[in-house]
């Protein structure tokens, strides 16, 4: 998991650097060696000396919570500071200490808790015995919803393959990734094609894919933090790239 996060971080940094080069932006990359409170404070103090007040925060939910706590501890949660939280679970984050500070905090929410499917799940979730299901005292995170939908996609794929009478368990060419050129798995093409054709309603809304296998035609809510809590300000449809404002 750590190596996967590192690779993702490098890919994001590479995209930023490429965009900066195209637009003649000045970008500085700072390496934070230790993910602890002292390192976060030093980073924030260094940014403060540069008079930076606009931030996009993109990190794992566990580190994000610690970073937000340090932002409050050094007093950078007040009016004049602007934060965009770049994950998909704005409601998963504890922002009580930010609510009355005055900083502008914006984030994204993939799971819509008002949909019938999510509402039904939450009703069942709240009835779980915490002794039998440790962790059920807190709501599931958006990453859990994505995992759930991923399993649904695979299950639907296998059902569709069976309807097409394609038996992926039959013996045949197992494939060889190290061959030159690589030899694909015999049933791999059928699996890929069927995966791309899946269209279901999951906990994260509409799930479907384009011919490249990328997810399309789903929506995210955009939230701002007010002194009364998170408030939805718009809905972004990721297929048409249209934002509908309340």
From TrEMBL:
Record's keyword terms, sorted: Membrane, Transmembrane, Transmembrane helix
Q: Does the keyword Lipid metabolism apply?
A: no
Cited Pfam families? ANF_receptor
Q: Which GO terms describe its cellular component?
A: membrane
Metal-binding as a keyword of this entry, yes or no, is no
Hey, what's the signal peptide range on this chain? none
Main location (coarse class): membrane
What subcellular locations does the record give?
Membrane
* Ranges of residues in domain Receptor ligand binding region: 8-227
Q: What is this protein called?
A: Receptor ligand binding region domain-containing protein
Q: What organism does this protein naturally occur in?
A: Anser brachyrhynchus
């Amino acid at each position: 998991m750590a190596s996967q996060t590192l690779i993702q971080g490098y890919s994001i940094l590479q995209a930023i650097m490429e965009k900066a080069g195209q637009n003649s932006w000045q970008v500085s990359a700072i390496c934070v060696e230790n993910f602890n409170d002292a390192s976060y404070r030093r980073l924030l103090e260094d940014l403060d000396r540069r008079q930076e007040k606009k931030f996009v925060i993109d990190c794992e939910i566990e580190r994000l919570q610690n970073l937000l706590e340090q932002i409050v501890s050094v007093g950078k949660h007040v009016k004049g500071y602007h934060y965009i939280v770049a994950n998909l679970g704005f409601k998963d984050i504890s922002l009580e200490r930010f609510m009355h500070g005055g900083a502008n905090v914006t984030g994204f929410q993939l799971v819509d808790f008002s949909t019938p499917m999510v509402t039904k799940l939450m009703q069942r979730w709240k009835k779980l015995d915490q002794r039998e299901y440790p962790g059920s005292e807190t709501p599931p995170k958006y990453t859990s919803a994505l995992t759930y939908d991923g399993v649904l996609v695979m299950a639907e794929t296998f059902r569709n393959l069976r309807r097409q009478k394609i038996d992926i368990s039959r013996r045949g060419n197992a494939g060889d990734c190290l061959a030159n050129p690589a030899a694909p798995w015999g049933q791999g093409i059928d699996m890929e094609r069927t995966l791309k054709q899946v269209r279901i309603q999951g906990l994260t809304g509409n799930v479907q894919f384009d011919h490249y296998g990328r997810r399309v035609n789903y929506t995210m809510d955009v939230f701002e933090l007010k002194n009364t809590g998170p408030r939805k300000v718009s809905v972004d449809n990721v297929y048409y790239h249209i934002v509908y404002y309340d």
